[in-house]
């Protein structure tokens, strides 16, 4: 298992894995842009397909709305199976068509033995490194994006494969070409890893329920990093209760964002959290897009799930939960690096914020459920 930070490391590891594929490549993504990074992936996938490796792709219709149809047509023409998740088609005859349901998962599986998951989309927007000063995507004048992903081997890959195939079946995709999708599992590492997928078709989000349970069981520390933080009453209460029983709760949240409504809706909860003793830090110098939690140094999760209503109620999401002190130390080191690039938010300082910020928080909170 390897912890991957930001676009350069993640993309290179994914491209290398695709290049080494011998049987199949299954890719599920929210955004797949027709830009430098997207073309790099397209060329890698086409090269393997032409060598007899079957490539299967699920792409979200909203996430890829700006990607020209020709981009996917060239893949399909070469034999890649391309499935559009919940197509944006008002004339659709599907009885289960719902515009608000999106596939927010980011998953790559190669030969049923190696998998990647996390927060990163496939776009040049994410191609900079947030840990190197001045690093940003080529031609982009904005700040780099800060993301986290995992490269996994071992029995958990079969669980991720099941989730991919279930998503394909739920979208009524064509029969997939026969391949060795479930090779004999091989042990890899000492950590215990569990794959958790969630969908609005289920009565509740298993990812959310698992996180709440882990927070309720925390004994010493909670280290939470999240890009879009719009907590519901249960999550707020869980964090407050953790502090009340002596747990050191620290949050790293965005200092700048690509979604102003989500940003200010999340900030509307700062006063309550700070009063309860939760320590809040805002990441500087990058747009935070990571979604990670570390509890008591041994329980970790990395995935696509934001802590907002959309992720828990409307999106198909995917996280991995890792149990192990060794991996926990890597997560803590990453958290510490982000902490060094963040500024603390104090209750006294927060209460001095301007009236225009308070108004933005109030207005954004009204829309929190639909963000």
Characteristics of this structure?
2 domains, 12 helices, Endonuclease, Chain A, alpha/beta
Structural commentary:
- This protein is an alpha/beta fold and 371 residues long.
- It folds into two domains: 2-170, 2-Layer Sandwich (Endonuclease, Chain A), CATH 3.30.870; 192-370, Endonuclease, Chain A (2-Layer Sandwich), CATH 3.30.870.
- Helix content is 35%, strand content 25%.
- The chain has helices spanning 6-19, 36-50, 69-77, 156-170, 206-217, 233-244, 260-267, 270-276, 309-313, 325-340, 347-350, 355-366, and strands at residues 2-5, 24-29, 54-60, 81-85, 102-103, 107-110, 114-118, 145-146, 148-153, 192-198, 221-226, 248-254, 279-283, 287-288, 291-295, 299-303, 315-323, 342-345.
- Strands 5, 10, 11, 12, 13, 15, 16, 17 and 18 form a nine-stranded mixed sheet that branches. Strands 1-9-7-6-2-3-4 form a seven-stranded mixed sheet, with helices on both faces.
- It is globular and about 60 Å long.
- The model is unreliable at 134-139 (pLDDT under 50).
Low-confidence stretches: 134-139
Q: Judging from the principal axes of the Cα atoms, what is the shape?
A: globular
Q: Please, how many helices?
A: 12
Summed up, the domain count is: 2
CATH A-level architecture of the largest domain: 2-Layer Sandwich
**Beta-strand content:** 15-25%
Instruction: Kindly report the average pLDDT value.
Output: 92
The helix/strand series, from N terminus to C terminus, equals EHEHEHEEEEEEHEHEHEHHEEEEHEHEHH
Query: How much is the radius of gyration in Å?
Result: 20 Å
| Total DSSP E strands | 18
The CATH class of the largest domain: Alpha Beta
Cα distance, first to last residue? 33 Å
According to CATH, the fold-level topology of the largest domain is: Endonuclease, Chain A
Structural class: alpha/beta
Helix proportion: 25-40%
Write the CATH homologous superfamily of the largest domain: Endonuclease Chain A
Largest sheet: 9 strands, mixed
């Amino acid at each position: 298992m390897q912890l991957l930070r930001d676009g350069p490391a993640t993309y290179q590891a994914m491209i290398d894995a695709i290049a080494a594929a011998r049987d199949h490549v299954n890719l599920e993504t929210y955004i797949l842009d027709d830009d430098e990074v997207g073309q790099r992936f397209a060329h890698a996938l086409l090269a393997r397909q032409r060598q007899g490796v079957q490539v299967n792709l699920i792409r979200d219709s909203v996430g890829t709305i700006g990607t020209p149809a020709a981009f996917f047509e060239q893949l399909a023409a070469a034999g890649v199976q391309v499935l559009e998740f919940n197509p944006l088609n008002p004339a659709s005859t599907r009885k289960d068509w719902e515009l608000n349901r999106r596939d927010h998962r980011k998953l790559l599986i190669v030969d049923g033995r190696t998998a990647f998951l996390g927060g990163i989309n496939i776009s040049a927007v994410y191609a900079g490194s947030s840990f190197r000063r001045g690093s940003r995507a080529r031609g982009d004048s904005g700040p780099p994006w800060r993301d986290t992903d995992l490269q996994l081997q071992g029995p958990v890959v079969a669980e991720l494969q099941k989730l991919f195939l279930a998503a394909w079946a739920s979208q009524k995709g064509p029969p997939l070409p026969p391949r060795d999708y479930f090779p004999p599992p091989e042990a890899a590492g000492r950590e215990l890893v569990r794959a958790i997928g969630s969908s609005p078709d289920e009565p509740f989000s298993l990812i959310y329920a698992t996180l709440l349970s882990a927070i309720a069981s925390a004994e010493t520390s909670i280290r939470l990093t999240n890009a879009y933080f719009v907590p519901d009453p249960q999550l707020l209460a869980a964090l407050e209760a953790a502090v009340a029983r002596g747990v050191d709760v620290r949050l790293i949240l965005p200092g700048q964002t690509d979604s102003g409504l989500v940003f200010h809706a999340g900030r509307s909860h700062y006063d309550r959290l700070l009063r309860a003793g939760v320590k809040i830090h805002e990441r500087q110098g990058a747009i935070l897009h990571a979604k990670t939690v570390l509890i008591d140094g041994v329980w970790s999760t990395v995935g696509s799930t934001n802590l907002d209503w959309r992720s828990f109620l409307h999106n198909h999401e995917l996280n991995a939960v890792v149990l192990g002190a060794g991996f926990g130390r890597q997560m803590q080191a990453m958290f510490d690096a982000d902490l060094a690039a963040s500024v603390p938010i104090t209750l006294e300082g927060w209460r001095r914020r301007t009236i225009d910020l308070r108004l933005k928080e109030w207005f954004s909170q009204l829309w929190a459920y639909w963000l």
